[in-house]
């Protein structure tokens, strides 16, 4: 599964030019990932010295190029046997550049299925990774992410209550239920953590408790009232799926994600100031309570919107911020954009793998993120252990 | 004009921790904050830093109430060094020092040259320039405290508050650190456990007991056997001018219950 491994620094890896499209999907994924690796490896050493201004920009530009390239390659891959030329002709036609001369079905596959799905993967990857980075810094806990803190399982409970138990009487969509569930779960976890004393470890303990509770409620609802068909559909959604993505999802999630990132960037210095705790941040002039409330609310909203569109995709928020820190260091002004890019590239390739590896069967994308995320996380833990 | 506390009180969990303390700092002095565990030293320091709001009385910065000032404005005047800072974040020493520039920056912009100059000066003044690329978490306790002081200096404050900065350091690093603090041209408040260090480095000391101020003045005037017996409940002999003019040295006298002679056999090198 090295095809879609998250970018890791590896100064030894040569900087490869991406493969010309047309080879097997596994190989394409690998070449883009190692292309990023090669560039990143060069930037790593320079950064330790406080970071010249040029290298982060270079890395950011390389990341943006890699993301565009990833999307361009990912939309050429899929069960339907479309010629490369036709795929780009459809995109060009939709952008108003000439006539593609392809069938409506082919046009639909590219423009209504593959492209929105790939873009939604990029947006979700970016957004979830940002959520993870913010939560880890704010709560001073390297284990914090939307999944661990119960936001995702709360969304699942909300979605199941709407779809299976019929809460809302049909007036609320699945995504509405997921959104409400995510916010409720996060509020509960934070309240529980505050009641338990509010330390960084308490938040994760409260998250574990919340996750278990909401998982139990979800299972209870599914078992007590779902039929077989509903159960299968819900389970698939619970594990994360970008399958039903449309342009509406892309627009909503993209806008929320862009706003969230912009807002977090205005607080980048304040996030740095939290490194030594809340009192230390306050002595550096940060309005601790206001910044905390603002960023927690932003994170919860962002995660809720993404989870309601794409299901509970775990480990992106946990692992990608750590990978990005290895690349550019912990200073948020540089870290947040790189985290977003890394998350986007990662999820584009993970989703491509999820929908093609076992075609015509489709793997839930959350399964693939976990299969990749857990070993990656173990590596990060081991690396931290050595560094300390 | 500098920091002053006027009749400040603060309670936590229904218990009065700081009880009507008044103290006015003098420009450029090093003030020692003394008292046994739980006497309210750290809490008073937090009140002076504006990290906690007073329940009674007021903290004044240049005669203006601290609580009415913006946090950023306070951070450009008053810097704080904690007993032992810890972080999960893998910052380099220089990045830690750079944190001190945050109060001088807006959301986006800032004077990059001024930032760089202040960071260089802070590193040079604390003798930590050679540590700049080291990861903060791999530094020794003494190095970490020096880097934290460099971070505080990068804030370009006029007042520096230190909460038991020598607690986790060996003797040599305790002396080095306080000598460094004493050299700085700042108004400094330092909470200390060690009365000899206070006598050696402070221009003035104040002594707290159970949240109340019991004595204030020059070390030679305050640190008497009677006060030490009264506040710390130990017998002590004070040797005037033993650590320099006006700087007494204190020798604690073990209570007779502890004073059995060392066991000669167990002191033999075991070969």
From TrEMBL, chain A:
Its main location: membrane. Belongs to the binding-protein-dependent transport system permease family. FecCD subfamily. The chain crosses the membrane at residues 57-77, 118-135, 147-172, 178-196, 203-223, 235-263, 294-323, 335-357, 363-382. Coiled coil: none annotated. It is found in: Cell membrane. Keywords: Cell membrane, Membrane, Transmembrane, Transmembrane helix, Transport. Residues 1-44 are annotated as: Disordered. It is a multi-pass membrane protein. This is Iron complex transport system permease protein. One of its GO terms (biological process) is siderophore-iron import into cell. It holds the Pfam family FecCD. One of its GO terms (cellular component) is plasma membrane. GO terms for molecular function: transmembrane transporter activity. It comes from the Bacteria. Residues 1-12 have a biased composition (Pro residues).
TrEMBL record, chain B:
GO terms for molecular function: ATP binding; ATP hydrolysis activity. It holds the Pfam family ABC_tran. Gene3D superfamilies: P-loop containing nucleotide triphosphate hydrolases. Keywords: ATP-binding, Nucleotide-binding, Translocase, Transport. InterPro entries: AAA+_ATPase, ABC_transporter-like_ATP-bd, ABC_transporter-like_CS, P-loop_NTPase. This is Iron complex transport system ATP-binding protein. Residues 3-235 form the ABC transporter domain. The keyword Zinc-finger does not apply.
């Amino acid at each position: 599964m090295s095809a879609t491994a998250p970018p890791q620094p590896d100064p030894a890896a040569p900087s490869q030019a991406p493969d010309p499209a047309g080879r097997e999907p596994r190989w394409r994924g690998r070449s883009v990932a190692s292309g990023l690796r090669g560039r990143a490896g060069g930037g790593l050493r320079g950064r330790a010295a406080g970071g010249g201004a040029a290298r982060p920009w270079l890395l950011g530009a390389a990341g943006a190029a890699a993301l565009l390239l990833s999307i361009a390659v990912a939309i050429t891959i899929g069960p339907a046997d479309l010629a490369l030329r036709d795929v780009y002709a459809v995109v060009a036609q939709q952008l108003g550049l000439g006539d593609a001369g392809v069938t409506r079905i082919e046009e639909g596959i590219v423009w209504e299925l593959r492209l929105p799905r790939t873009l939604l993967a990029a947006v979700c990857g970016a957004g979830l990774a940002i959520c993870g980075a913010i939560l880890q810094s704010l709560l001073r806990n390297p284990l914090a992410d939307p999944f661990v803190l119960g936001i995702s399982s709360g969304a699942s409970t909300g979605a199941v209550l709407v779809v299976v138990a019929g809460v809302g009487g049909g007036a609320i969509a699945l995504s509405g239920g997921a959104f409400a569930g995510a916010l409720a779960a996060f509020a509960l976890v934070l309240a529980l953590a505050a009641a338990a004393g509010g330390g960084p470890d308490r938040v994760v303990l409260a998250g574990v408790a919340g996750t278990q509770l909401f998982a139990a409620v979800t299972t209870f609802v599914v078992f007590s009232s779902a039929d077989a068909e509903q159960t299968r559909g819900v389970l698939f959604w619970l594990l994360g799926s970008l399958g039903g993505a449309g342009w509406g999802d892309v627009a909503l999630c993209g806008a929320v994600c862009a706003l969230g990132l912009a807002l977090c960037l205005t607080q980048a210095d304040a996030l740095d100031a939290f490194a030594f705790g809340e009192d230390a941040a306050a002595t550096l002039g940060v309005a601790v309570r206001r910044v905390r409330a603002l960023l927690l609310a932003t994170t919860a909203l962002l995660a809720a919107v993404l989870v309601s569109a794409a299901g509970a995709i775990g480990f992106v928020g946990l692992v990608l911020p750590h990978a990005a820190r290895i690349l550019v260091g912990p200073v948020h002004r540089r870290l947040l954009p790189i985290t977003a890019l890394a998350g986007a590239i990662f999820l584009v390739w993970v989703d491509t793998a999820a929908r093609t590896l076992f075609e015509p069967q489709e793997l839930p994308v959350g399964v693939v993120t976990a299969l990749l995320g857990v070993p990656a996380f173990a590596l990060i833990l081991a690396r931290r252990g050595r560094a300390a | 004009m500098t920091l002053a506390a006027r009749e400040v009180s603060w309670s936590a969990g229904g218990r009065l921790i700081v009880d009507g303390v008044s103290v006015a700092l003098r420009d450029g002095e090093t003030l020692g904050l003394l008292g046994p565990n739980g006497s309210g030293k750290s809490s008073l320091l937090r009140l002076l830093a504006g990290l906690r709001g007073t329940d009674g009385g007021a903290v004044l910065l240049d005669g203006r109430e601290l609580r009415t000032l913006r946090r950023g404005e306070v951070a450009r005047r008053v810097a704080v060094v904690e007993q032992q800072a810890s972080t999960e974040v893998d910052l380099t020493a220089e990045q830690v020092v750079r944190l001190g520039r945050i109060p001088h920056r807006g959301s986006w912009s800032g004077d990059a040259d001024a930032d760089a100059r202040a960071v260089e000066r802070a590193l040079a003044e604390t003798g930590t320039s050679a540590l700049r690329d080291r990861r903060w978490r791999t530094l020794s306790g003494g190095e970490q405290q020096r880097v934290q002081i460099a971070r505080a200096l990068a804030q370009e404050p006029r007042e520096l508050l230190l909460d038991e900065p020598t607690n986790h350091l060996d003797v040599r690093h305790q002396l080095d650190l306080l000598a460094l603090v004493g050299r700085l041209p700042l108004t400094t408040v330092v909470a200390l456990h060690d009365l000899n260090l206070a006598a050696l480095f402070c221009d003035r000391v104040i002594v707290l007991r159970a949240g109340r101020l019991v004595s204030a003045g020059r070390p030679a005037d305050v640190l008497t056997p009677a006060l030490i017996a009264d506040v710390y409940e130990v017998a002590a002999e004070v040797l005037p001018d033993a650590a320099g003019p006006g700087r007494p040295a204190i020798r604690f006298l073990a209570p007779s219950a502890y004073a059995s002679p060392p066991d000669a056999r167990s002191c033999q090198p075991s070969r």
